[in-house]
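Q: A reviewer asked whether we had any structural model of the full assembly, not just the individual parts. We don't, so I'm hoping you can provide one. Inputs are below.
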Amino acid sequence: DTEVTQTPKHLVMGMTNKKSLKCEQHMGHRAMYWYKQKAKKPPELMFVYSYEKLSINESVPSRFSPECPNSSLLNLHLHALQPEDSALYLCASSQDGQGRGNTIYFGEGSWLTVV
Amino acid sequence: GESVGLHLPTLSVQEGDNSIINCAYSNSASDYFIWYKQESGKGPQFIIDIRSNMDKRQGQRVTVLLNKTVKHLSLQIAATQPGDSAVYFCAENPWDQGGKLIFGQGTELSVKP
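A: Here is a predicted structure for the entire assembly that you could use as a starting point for your response.
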Protein backbone atom coordinates (compact mmCIF):
# COMPACT_ATOMS: atom_id res chain seq x y z
CA ASP A 1 0.00 0.00 0.00
CA THR A 2 1.19 3.48 -0.84
CA GLU A 3 2.16 5.83 1.97
CA VAL A 4 1.11 8.81 -0.07
CA THR A 5 -2.51 9.59 0.73
CA GLN A 6 -4.71 11.60 -1.60
CA THR A 7 -8.18 13.03 -1.01
CA PRO A 8 -10.76 13.02 -2.36
CA LYS A 9 -10.60 9.86 -4.47
CA HIS A 10 -13.29 11.21 -6.78
CA LEU A 11 -14.32 14.80 -7.49
CA VAL A 12 -16.93 16.19 -9.85
CA MET A 13 -16.90 19.94 -10.30
CA GLY A 14 -18.46 22.54 -12.51
CA MET A 15 -16.44 24.93 -14.61
CA THR A 16 -17.15 27.82 -12.23
CA ASN A 17 -16.36 25.91 -9.03
CA LYS A 18 -13.32 26.22 -6.79
CA LYS A 19 -12.06 22.99 -5.28
CA SER A 20 -8.86 21.54 -3.90
CA LEU A 21 -7.04 18.23 -4.07
CA LYS A 22 -5.02 17.23 -1.04
CA CYS A 23 -2.00 15.02 -0.56
CA GLU A 24 -0.17 13.88 2.54
CA GLN A 25 2.95 11.81 3.17
CA HIS A 26 4.61 10.87 6.46
CA MET A 27 7.79 9.32 5.11
CA GLY A 28 9.90 12.40 5.82
CA HIS A 29 10.30 13.04 2.10
CA ARG A 30 11.44 16.49 1.02
CA ALA A 31 10.25 16.50 -2.58
CA MET A 32 6.60 16.34 -3.58
CA TYR A 33 5.01 16.26 -7.01
CA TRP A 34 1.78 16.66 -8.91
CA TYR A 35 1.23 14.62 -12.05
CA LYS A 36 -1.73 14.51 -14.42
CA GLN A 37 -2.68 11.30 -16.18
CA LYS A 38 -5.17 10.81 -18.98
CA ALA A 39 -6.61 7.40 -19.82
CA LYS A 40 -4.15 5.00 -21.47
CA LYS A 41 -1.34 7.59 -21.23
CA PRO A 42 1.70 7.94 -18.98
CA PRO A 43 1.68 10.46 -16.11
CA GLU A 44 2.70 14.01 -17.06
CA LEU A 45 4.58 16.15 -14.60
CA MET A 46 2.88 19.38 -13.50
CA PHE A 47 4.76 20.68 -10.44
CA VAL A 48 7.67 19.79 -8.21
CA TYR A 49 8.18 21.10 -4.69
CA SER A 50 11.62 20.77 -3.18
CA TYR A 51 12.03 21.62 0.51
CA GLU A 52 8.58 23.24 0.42
CA LYS A 53 9.51 25.56 -2.43
CA LEU A 54 8.21 25.32 -5.98
CA SER A 55 11.15 24.14 -8.08
CA ILE A 56 9.49 23.04 -11.32
CA ASN A 57 6.34 24.30 -13.04
CA GLU A 58 5.83 22.55 -16.36
CA SER A 59 4.02 25.54 -17.91
CA VAL A 60 0.78 24.55 -16.22
CA PRO A 61 -2.20 26.93 -16.75
CA SER A 62 -2.87 29.26 -13.84
CA ARG A 63 -6.26 27.65 -13.20
CA PHE A 64 -4.14 25.03 -11.37
CA SER A 65 -2.49 26.49 -8.28
CA PRO A 66 -0.22 24.32 -6.12
CA GLU A 67 0.50 24.93 -2.47
CA CYS A 68 2.87 23.24 -0.03
CA PRO A 69 1.88 24.27 3.53
CA ASN A 70 4.59 22.08 5.09
CA SER A 71 6.90 19.23 4.19
CA SER A 72 4.13 16.62 4.62
CA LEU A 73 1.29 18.32 2.77
CA LEU A 74 0.68 19.28 -0.83
CA ASN A 75 -2.48 20.85 -2.22
CA LEU A 76 -3.68 21.56 -5.72
CA HIS A 77 -6.23 24.35 -5.94
CA LEU A 78 -8.58 24.21 -8.90
CA HIS A 79 -10.54 27.11 -10.35
CA ALA A 80 -12.35 27.68 -13.63
CA LEU A 81 -11.35 24.33 -15.05
CA GLN A 82 -12.32 23.03 -18.47
CA PRO A 83 -13.82 19.64 -19.33
CA GLU A 84 -10.50 18.65 -20.92
CA ASP A 85 -8.90 18.96 -17.48
CA SER A 86 -10.77 15.82 -16.44
CA ALA A 87 -8.09 13.27 -15.55
CA LEU A 88 -6.44 11.32 -12.77
CA TYR A 89 -4.31 13.64 -10.64
CA LEU A 90 -1.43 11.90 -8.95
CA CYS A 91 0.59 13.11 -6.02
CA ALA A 92 4.05 11.67 -5.41
CA SER A 93 6.99 12.15 -3.09
CA SER A 94 10.66 11.29 -2.88
CA GLN A 95 13.28 11.45 -0.17
CA ASP A 96 15.80 13.74 -1.77
CA GLY A 97 14.87 17.37 -1.88
CA GLN A 98 16.06 17.64 -5.44
CA GLY A 99 14.19 14.51 -6.42
CA ARG A 100 17.22 13.16 -8.17
CA GLY A 101 18.07 9.51 -8.10
CA ASN A 102 15.56 8.68 -5.43
CA THR A 103 12.52 6.49 -5.70
CA ILE A 104 9.38 8.49 -6.38
CA TYR A 105 6.32 7.00 -4.68
CA PHE A 106 2.84 7.71 -5.96
CA GLY A 107 -0.51 7.98 -4.26
CA GLU A 108 -3.63 6.30 -5.63
CA GLY A 109 -4.75 9.51 -7.29
CA SER A 110 -7.80 11.72 -7.36
CA TRP A 111 -10.20 11.20 -10.26
CA LEU A 112 -11.39 14.60 -11.41
CA THR A 113 -14.37 15.14 -13.69
CA VAL A 114 -15.15 18.66 -14.88
CA VAL A 115 -18.71 19.16 -16.11
CA GLY B 1 12.59 15.57 -28.27
CA GLU B 2 14.09 13.07 -25.89
CA SER B 3 11.78 10.33 -24.78
CA VAL B 4 11.48 6.97 -23.22
CA GLY B 5 9.67 4.50 -25.41
CA LEU B 6 8.45 0.95 -25.24
CA HIS B 7 8.81 -1.58 -28.02
CA LEU B 8 5.43 -3.27 -27.52
CA PRO B 9 2.21 -1.55 -26.46
CA THR B 10 0.52 -4.83 -25.44
CA LEU B 11 1.81 -8.18 -24.27
CA SER B 12 -0.25 -11.30 -23.69
CA VAL B 13 1.29 -14.25 -21.85
CA GLN B 14 0.14 -17.54 -20.42
CA GLU B 15 0.07 -17.91 -16.66
CA GLY B 16 3.33 -19.41 -15.47
CA ASP B 17 5.35 -18.14 -18.42
CA ASN B 18 8.05 -15.50 -18.13
CA SER B 19 7.30 -11.98 -19.37
CA ILE B 20 9.74 -9.50 -20.84
CA ILE B 21 8.82 -5.86 -21.23
CA ASN B 22 11.23 -3.64 -23.13
CA CYS B 23 11.98 0.05 -23.01
CA ALA B 24 14.26 2.34 -25.02
CA TYR B 25 15.54 5.67 -23.77
CA SER B 26 17.42 8.43 -25.49
CA ASN B 27 18.58 10.84 -22.77
CA SER B 28 22.28 10.23 -22.16
CA ALA B 29 22.03 12.18 -18.91
CA SER B 30 19.71 9.59 -17.38
CA ASP B 31 21.38 7.74 -14.54
CA TYR B 32 18.43 6.32 -12.68
CA PHE B 33 15.56 4.21 -13.97
CA ILE B 34 12.37 2.93 -12.40
CA TRP B 35 9.71 0.42 -13.40
CA TYR B 36 6.17 1.04 -12.25
CA LYS B 37 3.10 -1.19 -12.33
CA GLN B 38 -0.28 0.48 -12.67
CA GLU B 39 -3.43 -1.52 -12.12
CA SER B 40 -6.75 -0.26 -13.34
CA GLY B 41 -8.04 2.61 -11.20
CA LYS B 42 -4.88 2.84 -9.11
CA GLY B 43 -1.74 4.94 -8.98
CA PRO B 44 1.63 3.72 -10.30
CA GLN B 45 3.26 1.26 -7.92
CA PHE B 46 7.05 1.07 -7.63
CA ILE B 47 8.38 -2.32 -8.73
CA ILE B 48 12.15 -2.03 -9.05
CA ASP B 49 14.81 0.50 -9.88
CA ILE B 50 18.34 0.49 -11.23
CA ARG B 51 21.16 3.00 -11.36
CA SER B 52 23.42 3.51 -14.33
CA ASN B 53 26.42 1.96 -12.57
CA MET B 54 24.62 -1.41 -12.65
CA ASP B 55 23.65 -3.76 -15.49
CA LYS B 56 21.22 -5.96 -13.64
CA ARG B 57 19.14 -5.90 -10.51
CA GLN B 58 16.87 -8.59 -9.13
CA GLY B 59 13.83 -8.41 -6.94
CA GLN B 60 11.15 -10.86 -6.02
CA ARG B 61 10.21 -12.53 -9.34
CA VAL B 62 11.38 -9.44 -11.23
CA THR B 63 14.68 -8.57 -12.85
CA VAL B 64 15.65 -5.31 -14.53
CA LEU B 65 18.41 -5.25 -17.13
CA LEU B 66 20.11 -2.06 -18.30
CA ASN B 67 22.18 -1.83 -21.47
CA LYS B 68 23.67 1.63 -21.58
CA THR B 69 25.43 1.01 -24.87
CA VAL B 70 22.17 0.78 -26.77
CA LYS B 71 20.10 2.72 -24.23
CA HIS B 72 17.78 -0.18 -23.51
CA LEU B 73 15.98 -1.25 -20.37
CA SER B 74 13.95 -4.39 -19.79
CA LEU B 75 11.75 -5.83 -17.06
CA GLN B 76 11.55 -9.58 -16.70
CA ILE B 77 8.76 -11.15 -14.66
CA ALA B 78 9.22 -14.80 -13.76
CA ALA B 79 6.27 -17.19 -13.53
CA THR B 80 3.76 -14.54 -14.51
CA GLN B 81 0.54 -14.61 -12.52
CA PRO B 82 -2.94 -13.17 -13.22
CA GLY B 83 -2.23 -10.53 -10.57
CA ASP B 84 0.59 -9.24 -12.75
CA SER B 85 -1.93 -8.00 -15.31
CA ALA B 86 -1.48 -4.23 -15.47
CA VAL B 87 0.15 -1.44 -17.43
CA TYR B 88 3.90 -1.26 -16.90
CA PHE B 89 5.77 2.02 -17.29
CA CYS B 90 9.48 2.56 -17.41
CA ALA B 91 10.71 5.95 -16.28
CA GLU B 92 14.06 7.71 -16.38
CA ASN B 93 15.44 10.40 -14.12
CA PRO B 94 18.04 12.54 -15.92
CA TRP B 95 20.63 13.87 -13.47
CA ASP B 96 20.40 17.35 -14.99
CA GLN B 97 16.63 17.76 -14.64
CA GLY B 98 16.14 17.69 -10.89
CA GLY B 99 13.10 15.72 -9.88
CA LYS B 100 11.71 15.20 -13.34
CA LEU B 101 10.71 11.65 -14.26
CA ILE B 102 10.30 10.95 -17.97
CA PHE B 103 7.85 8.12 -18.55
CA GLY B 104 7.61 5.70 -21.42
CA GLN B 105 4.29 5.13 -23.13
CA GLY B 106 3.47 1.98 -21.19
CA THR B 107 2.95 -1.69 -22.00
CA GLU B 108 -0.28 -3.45 -21.10
CA LEU B 109 0.43 -6.93 -19.81
CA SER B 110 -2.42 -9.44 -19.99
CA VAL B 111 -2.01 -12.81 -18.30
CA LYS B 112 -4.18 -15.66 -19.54
CA PRO B 113 -5.08 -18.32 -16.98
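A: Points you may want to mention in the reply: Chain B has a mean pLDDT of 90. DSSP finds no helices and eleven strands in chain B.
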